[in-house]
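Morning. Coffee machine broken again, so started the prediction first thing and wrote up yesterday's gels while waiting. Chain of 205 residues, entered below exactly as on the submission form.
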Amino acid sequence: MEQKIVYFEKPGPTNTDAALRLAAEEAVRRDIRTVILASTRGDTAKRAAALFAGTGVRLIVVPHQFGFTETQLFPPALVDELEQQGHRVHFGTMLFHTDGLYGSGAAEAMAMVLRTVCQGLKVCVEIVLMAGDAGLVSRGEEVIVVTGTRRGADTAVVALASTSHQLQDLHITEILCKPLQTRSWGRGTSPYDAIERHRQSGGLE
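Came back before lunch.
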């Protein structure tokens, strides 16, 4: 079989509409009824809710857990609005940020390995397990997971859900889209800058 993967040149919020559209198209095509979505401040959740309105797709929105930042950035009023529309908002423990509690180093090691594909894939795995732990998705349920790099959305996958206790039963079956750059660099140069200079010079450096 052949499936299309969309690669965004750079990560970030400029890809949000395209990533959500790809997720929506795949949900309709495959009759997938659950989309798990990362949204820190609520902007991506609002755009997704508008896009999926009337489709029968339920969103499980996963913001940062309480205490991860000094204040909770996801608006309480939006929680009520989304849940009135039939969606769920879940503030669960962010599994790849537990080394400070358990001290094992395993959570951060897993996160680093997943980030070698892209930041969004790390978040995809994390939030589908969080949703499973909360009983919001069933083990083995086919879902679409949409996440991003810092803000917005740029990564979407199809997955068979599981819980953190049954991590071996989580499967990322398809990648719908991801950024070519594995993460964003807020300041300074990135490893991709040298590649771009090499291309522009015709490979003569």
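The chain has a mean pLDDT of 91. Going to sketch it on the whiteboard this afternoon.
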